[in-house]
Amino acid sequence: MSRLEATVPEARLEQVNHLEEELGMSKSQIIDEALSLFFKTVMELKQGWRIAFLDANSQRVREFTSPALTQVEWATRRERIVLPDADFDRARRLLENPPGPTPALKEAVARRNRRKRRKEE
User: Fold this and answer.
1) What is the rounded distance in angstroms from the CA atom of residue 93 to the CA atom of residue 22?
2) Which residues touch 51 (CB under 8 Å, ≥6 apart)?
3) pTM over 0.90
4) Residue 45 buriedness (CB in 10 A; 0-12 / 13-18 / 19+)
5) Among 6, 46, 63, 87, which is disulfide-ready with 83 (CB 3.0 to 4.6 Å)?
C-alpha cells in the first residue's frame, strides 16, 4: 500500500466525512473509489463515450462532466477545420464588426435584469 496526500476545499472534506458516516467506509476507501471512477471515466471519454446518469423511472438522462473531464474530451477530439476563403473572410468581418443584439436577445436581457432586481429587493 502507498500513502497519498491531497489538499481539498473544506466543503469537499465535509462531503467525504458525510460519506464515511453514511456508507461506513474509510476516507481511504472513498478516495480509492473516487479515483477508480475517475480513471474509468477518462478511459471511456478517450474512446468517445460520454458519462451520464439515467433515471430508472423516467429514463431521463443527465450528462456528467467536470473541468478536468472536459479537458480530456477536448484533447481527444481535436479536429482541424478548414474554411473556404469566402467563409473565412465572412467570419473575420463578423468578428471585427459584430452585429448588434437581436430583439430576442434584448428581451432576454431585460427579463434577466427584472428577475435580478426582484431578488435584490
Assistant:
1) 58
2) 41, 44, 45, 63, 64, 65, 69
3) no
4) buried
5) 87
